[in-house]
Amino acid sequence: MNDCLFCKIIAGEIPSSKVYEDEKVFAFRDINPQAPVHVLVVPKQHIDSANDISAENLDSVAACFRAIPAIAAAEGLSDGYRVINNCGKAAGQTVMHLHFHLIGGCELGEKIV
Ligand code: 5GP
Ligand code: ZN
What we know:
CATH architecture: 2-Layer Sandwich
Strand content: 15-25%
Distance between the termini: 33 Å
Strand order of the largest sheet: 1-2-3-5-4
Helix content: 10-25%
Radius of gyration: 14 Å
Bound molecules: guanosine-5'-monophosphate, zinc ion
Structural class: alpha+beta
Number of domains: 1
Largest sheet: 5 strands, antiparallel
CATH superfamily: HIT-like
CATH topology: HIT family, subunit A
């Protein structure tokens, strides 16, 4: 996946502001933050989108959700946070490497759900 932006960030070929890393997960600050805390939680395994989650890569996805509470705590989000995944064009997915937006640090009042 040489052409994938997030694979390059995970490999350290493109710099990022890393906040967390383990064997299966890489998390870094969004370059265009939508809230005081806006972290992208990304499986190291390349998965195009939520449509491509399968039994074979589910452990990578689970590892993201295992990491999210720890990242949120480290970022001081004790009052709560939002986790968002955009899947596909109509949802506004711009990077085709599965990622979860971890957003918080302010009142997240305008709910879409
Ligand atoms: P999507 O729109 O696919 O759900 O989210 C992609 C996110 O990646 C956007 O919020 C965008 O700001 C972020 N992004 C795009 N390019 C870069 C980059 O080079 N570095 C970082 N840290 N974030 C990026
Ligand atoms: Zn990738």
